[in-house]
């Protein structure tokens, strides 16, 4: 069987660029569009950017950590890379789709593999209403913001906001408030992955709110609707002993 054509994509750091040069010399230079597999060198931020880049031409992606945070990455090793890719365990990832309307009624869409977050833009706390599948579940949440996270993104911003860690195959999403003031005891919810969630911004002139899907930010939103986009699917590759489901499980038992 012919060896897979591998394209290496590196972060801008010196460490990642040095690794890219060495791996290209060892395994050959390949354009990512004609490659069979992509190997991303960097951290989780680089991985997310590559995932967004290849949405229209999806390829299996194997990350190797050359950054400071690497939850989506494997250990960096230059040896025997084609064999690692052959043995790697596959994880299927679907993004969230955000539909945001700003104060002028203009609509914008964006995809998020980690999370969609709504954040206050000024010193004033945000006031948000939450509807799930057309049913009002929370008339008014006073907070710094709120996060809707995928399982893959549940260990990122969501975890920092004390949200739950979600197993990859659980078929759920996390809805996590950021510094909730009222209702003070509301800590969020776990939702079916097919749920449609609509956030309505109250008093938006006094309390402006931005909405962000991974890297795409939209300012001064009036309402935001978030659903899982099952039509988009990416495949991430992990070493069998460090696959994503194992990492999510392990993260829940760390002190």
Break the fold down into its secondary structure elements and pairings.
Layout: E1 6-10, H1 14-27, E2 37-42, H2 44-53, E3 61-65, H3 81-87, E4 89-93, E5 96-102, E6 107-112, E7 115-120, E8 126-132, E9 135-143, E10 145-149, H4 157-160, E11 172-178, E12 189-192, E13 197-202, E14 209-213, E15 216-218, E16 221-228, E17 234-238, H5 244-251
Parallel strand pairs: 1-2, 2-3, 3-17
Antiparallel strand pairs: 4-17, 5-6, 5-16, 7-10, 7-14, 8-9, 8-13, 10-11, 11-12, 13-16, 14-15
Q: What does this protein structure show overall?
A:
The protein is of the alpha+beta class. It folds into two domains: 6-93 and 233-251, Probable inorganic polyphosphate/atp-NAD kinase, domain 1 (Rossmann fold), CATH 3.40.50; 96-228, Probable inorganic polyphosphate/atp-NAD kinase, domain 2 (Tumour Suppressor Smad4). 17% of the residues lie in helices and 39% in strands. The chain is built from five helices and 17 strands. It has helices spanning 14-27, 44-53, 81-87, 157-160, 244-251; strands spanning 6-10, 37-42, 61-65, 89-93, 96-102, 107-112, 115-120, 126-132, 135-143, 145-149, 172-178, 189-192, 197-202, 209-213, 216-218, 221-228, 234-238. The strands form three sheets. Strands 6-5-16-13-8-9 form a six-stranded antiparallel beta sheet, with no helix packed on it. It has a six-stranded antiparallel beta sheet with strand order 12-11-10-7-14-15, with no helix packed on it. The mean pLDDT is 92.
Brief summary:
By secondary structure, this protein is α+β, with helices and mostly antiparallel strands. 17% of the residues lie in helices and 39% in strands.
């Amino acid at each position: 069987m012919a060896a897979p054509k591998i394209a290496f994509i590196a972060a801008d750091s010196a460490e990642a660029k040095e690794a890219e040069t060495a791996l290209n010399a060892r395994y050959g230079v390949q354009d990512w569009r004609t490659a069979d597999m992509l190997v991303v060198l960097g951290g989780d931020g680089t991985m997310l950017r590559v995932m967004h880049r290849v949405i229209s031409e999806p390829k299996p992606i194997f990350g190797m950590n050359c950054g400071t945070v690497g939850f989506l990455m494997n250990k960096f090793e230059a040896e025997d890379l084609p064999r690692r890719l052959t043995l790697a365990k596959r994880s299927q990832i679907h993004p969230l789709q955000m539909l945001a309307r700003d104060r002028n009624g203009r609509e914008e869409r964006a995809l998020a593999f980690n999370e969609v977050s709504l954040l206050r833009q000024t010193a004033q706390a945000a006031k948000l209403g939450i509807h799930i599948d057309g049913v009002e579940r929370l008339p008014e949440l006073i907070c710094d913001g709120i996060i809707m996270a995928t399982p893959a993104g549940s260990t990122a911003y969501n975890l920092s906001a004390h949200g739950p860690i979600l197993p990859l195959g659980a078929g759920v999403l996390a809805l996590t408030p950021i510094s909730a003031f009222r209702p003070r005891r509301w800590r969020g919810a776990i939702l079916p992955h097919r749920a449609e969630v609509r956030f309505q911004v109250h008093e938006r002139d006094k309390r402006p709110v931005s909405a962000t899907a991974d890297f795409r930010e939209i300012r001064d939103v009036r309402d935001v609707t978030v659903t899982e986009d099952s039509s988009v699917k990416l495949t991430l590759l992990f070493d069998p002993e460090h696959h994503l489901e194992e990492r999510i499980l392990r993260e829940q038992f760390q002190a």
